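Hi everyone,

Forwarding the result from last night's run.
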Amino acid sequence: MAIIGLDVGDKHIGVAMAVGNVAVPVAVIVRTEEADDLERIAVLARDYETEIIVIGLPRSMDGTVGAQARLVLDFAKSLSNRIDTPIEMCDERLTTVMANRLMQESGTKRKKRKANIDAMAAAVILQAYIDGATKSSD
């Protein structure tokens, strides 16, 4: 089963894919027009025969849905209107911090971390989803 994970931000969209039960960072999409961003994701989903797209939901630390989370929910709704692939939301609080720490611990240089942080954050989001899905199916 192909699963794509997305970390949707204002300037970039981090993309990760599941390889077995492991999420790996794939790409960073530089945001342009929303229609173009949606089309790029639709093409990825089609090319990889994706069965689920997992999108990180940036809730506030207290768990509420703030302005940024509403923007991501709107993006997810627009994407769901464009493709048939099911979309699931996954709490993404502190994923960028975790992604940065993972890259730092692996020895990734600061410049490379900055260029790839969104894809790594998408991988962290997707891995959390996979781990949760695996646990609930045990």
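The two ends are 18 Å apart (CA to CA).

Cheers,
N.
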